[in-house]
Amino acid sequence: MSLRLPPLAAVHQDRAAKLTDFGGWEMPVEFDSIRTEHEAVRKSAGIFDVSHMSEIEVSGPDATTLMQRLTSNDVTALSPGDAQYSMITDEAGLIIDDTVVYRLPEGDRAVAPDGDGARYLFVPNAGHDELMVDRWVDHRDELGLDASVTNRTEEYAMVALQGPDASDALAAVASGDVRNLSPFEATYTSVAGVDALVSRTGYTGEDGYEILAPWDDAETVWSAFDCQPCGLGARDTLRIEAGFLLSGQDFDYEDDPRNPYEAGVGFSVKLDTEFVGRDALEGVHEEGSDQKFVGLRLIDRGVPRHGYPITTPDGETIGTVTSGTMSPTLDEPIGLGYVDREHAAVGSTVRVEIRGQPKKARIEPTNLLDEYR
Amino acid sequence: MSFETPDDLGYLESHEWARRDGDTVRVGITDFAQDELGDVVFVELPDVGDELDAQAEFGVVESIKAVSDLYAPVGGEVTAVNEDLFSAPELVNDDPYGEGWMLELELSEESDFDDLLSAEEYTEQTE
């Protein structure tokens, strides 16, 4: 099957980016070097093409009811222009996907069609758009709700501007006051003359923005920023350092399903709302999960990688590494993974089995940047 | 993008090179390979004195994003490893045919060298 191409595909090819299949999309993994791109985001600003992310719009009189039913957070807490991180879970409380839910601002020009009441846009991970549309439509029909569910994935380009200088870079080309947007707040504004939805959100552990613009205007928005283009390789290393979940690695609904509490994102679960998976998660919340998502820092030489076993010093297996890299910021091998709760205390010494060899490591907080800052 | 592929070296399809100086063969990975890998952050090499067969796995090279096995272009006893790579693995990126070399072998089978790809043959497979 041929890969889906983002609207900036030709731009990336001209720039000789290394490309990869990500969720069925051909996306840039590296433009110059992961280290260079990573450092640009930590120290100044980098720009990412994240047009492979899915975008699904939900509108109509029962939009709020439907969103509340299918996401773990409380959408009724959102005012127009607010966004929230949320989980999409199954009946057993296992994470199918993580997502950001936007309650679209008033004065829509770029994104939403006419509709009554609250309108939402949520952003599931790459390649999950059809799965999520089906899930939303099935539940809407089953519950007899009046809501429109529209897959906008191939209508909107998504560009992320991330880093301490992101605010200045965006303010220079945006018509609206983007500097005063709060974290997880979105507004419609013009970016380089293009009507866009701009939110102060990101996934790198830095200040940043995500810009949603019409597909055909992607190049205008992308080329308005004179900063380091970054690929998905740097996105991964930035996320690992900040302890953010990587879909398909830190949770994988097919191969390694996890519930939000063990994945360290219990804050996105509101048990006082009624959503699919709520009852199961209430039980997990009361009893505690068997495993916990932790950070790891390797003390011996080596690099922790997805799938490596985590053991006690005696060799008893207590967990698994789910993401790992040589941290460009800390210049140390770091990872994320799950360990049995009784071995999850920060400071505990464990082993990561690298190609059959036990290597000494320490349990750390998931946000490994805390110490750096 | 074109990559440096010196004419005086022998190559494996798995992107290692071998440079012969008498019975001593120096081994590393190619310019193409280091570019594909990206930033090299870790190299695991055998011990001096280890015996390697031609085509045998002798270590790993890790970039920020990936792990790759390393294969011996020829068989023989390991007579030296480049310990500079333990503290400066980026030498593999910076100078793959020079400071980024990985190990030296005392050639045991003359014919091993004859089986390697020429620079031209190797370049064809990477295009």
Task: Report on the architecture of this protein.
The complex is a heterodimer of chains A (373) and B (127). Chain A has 373 residues and is an alpha+beta fold. Chain A contains 8 helices and 19 strands. Chain A has a 6-stranded mixed beta sheet. In chain A, strands 14-17-16-15-18-19 form a 6-stranded antiparallel beta barrel. In chain A, helix 2 (34-43) packs across helix 7 (232-242). Chain A starts with 8 loop residues before the first helix and ends in a 9-residue tail after the last strand. The model of chain A is unreliable at 109-116 (pLDDT under 50). Chain B has a 6-stranded antiparallel beta sheet. Chain B has 5 helices and 9 strands, in the order E-E-E-H-E-E-E-E-E-H-H-E-H-H. By secondary structure, chain B is an alpha+beta fold. In chain B, 22% of the residues lie in helices and 35% in strands. Chain B starts with 9 loop residues before the first strand and ends with a helix. Chains A and B meet through helix 7 of A and strand 4 and strand 6 of B.
